[in-house]
Please model this.
Amino acid sequence: MVEHVDFKERQGWVMSLAAVILAAGKGTRMKSDLPKVLHKVCGVPMVCHVLKAARESGADRIVLVAGFGGELVEREVKGMAEVVFQHEQLGTAHALLQAARPLRDFNGDILVLCGDTPLVSADTLKRLVSAHRAGGASATVLTAVLENPAGYGRVIRDGRGKVTGIVEQKDAAPEELSIREINTGIYCFKSEGLFDALAVLKPDNVQGEYYLPDIIGLYAGEGRTVAAVSGADPGEIMGVNDRCQLAIARETLGRRVNRELMLSGVTMVDPDTVYIDAGVTIGSDTVIYPNTIIQGDAVIGRGCTIGPFTQIISARLGDNVTVRQSVVENSEIGSHCVIGPYSYIRPGCVLEDKVKVGDFVELKKATIGYGAKVPHLSYLGDAVLGRHVNVGAGTITCNYDGEKKWTTVIGDNAFIGSNANLVAPVRVGAGAVVGAGSTITRDVPDGALGVARDRQKNIPGWSGRRKGRKGESEARGEK
Ligand code: UD1
Ligand code: CA
Model:
């Protein structure tokens, strides 16, 4: 056998591998309008996790069988798989049969995966394929032994341990229900004869469905070689059929994501309270404090301090950034920036290096220049701030006139006094100063002082006279 493989390799002859992902089911138990395989685990639709594993396992063709919500599924996997449709969900065997057309000229091995098994790793798939090839099997099923096998198909073996079939939970006899070796729903088949055999299967079972696992019994009965790769990691092969299992899958993958990040040099003070999506990148020596959520394709640099109580959604952060008790979404944050506590950086912001955005500050579509400071209680929307601008507490850009959004531009080194209203469109020049409490409606030229508020009036002795009046009225019994 080994010599045979060597010979093939010497000839440069590599066995081809295709993968078919079954993803047409509605996922009734999810009780959802969204197709089951599009529910996300750590920010990525389940089916995309499976696609990634299939690609990394060496499959050079991937066919995806879509059905319920098929257009949505097709859009999600566009460019990553050939999509075929199963118009009626008649069972997993019928689903695989839909791949017969695109794979009619394919000659090699076909890996079959379910779109609802998102945690399977490429390594496990590679192990399955090489065992399948080494054993010269027509079909090899990946099995696992579970503490609680409820809901899964059970693997039936004969007295000598040979796999003779798979029986679904709903069709199983009481003694079969006690079997703890289960069908993971992941198989490898020789392409030869596969689709002909599928066409022979009958839906004679409790659910009236065409069961793909029946092909194992069929092959075994015909004397074709059927093998099993047993002992798959239960944490990898779990199927997600309802939202409780979805939460378990999230927890399992989340732990894997955190572990990999920690091993790559990220400190997590309490990883159990840190939720990081599968697509996130974080540099070494970054410290993540508890109750932090980092989502989408966020990229965080080295040496940052993130959290506690922080949510970062698809934002890019440079190195040595501090974000505390804040939300940062779809924005670019330069190195050495300090954000929070209690800042809300909404989509479309760009913070250059060394910017400080302090407590209770909301930014939206704002570009903040190098070294600028917005330390407290401000709203800056549709604003462009130059370098070293200082924005006083309570400053508001009035960017919306009820119909349109307008831009505020503030030049380098400008100083905005506290509690200013900048009514856009408006421009404050470089080095200009805006007096505290001003409502600025016209441009302030470079280097000028813009003040727009009433001059203060002091009335001498007013307070004492008021007290006197108050005393007289109280004496009259008035309130
Ligand atoms: C299936 C297996 C079971 C195995 C379990 C592993 C069958 C009959 N049973 O059960 O032995 O232990 O997976 O998780 O195969 N699908 C289609 N078209 C259909 C029906 C299903 O594409 O007509 C897809 C679904 O979208 C899903 C996958 O096939 O991704 C599995 O279907 P599901 O209904 O979840 O099967 P299980 O009952 O979990
Ligand atoms: Ca399932």
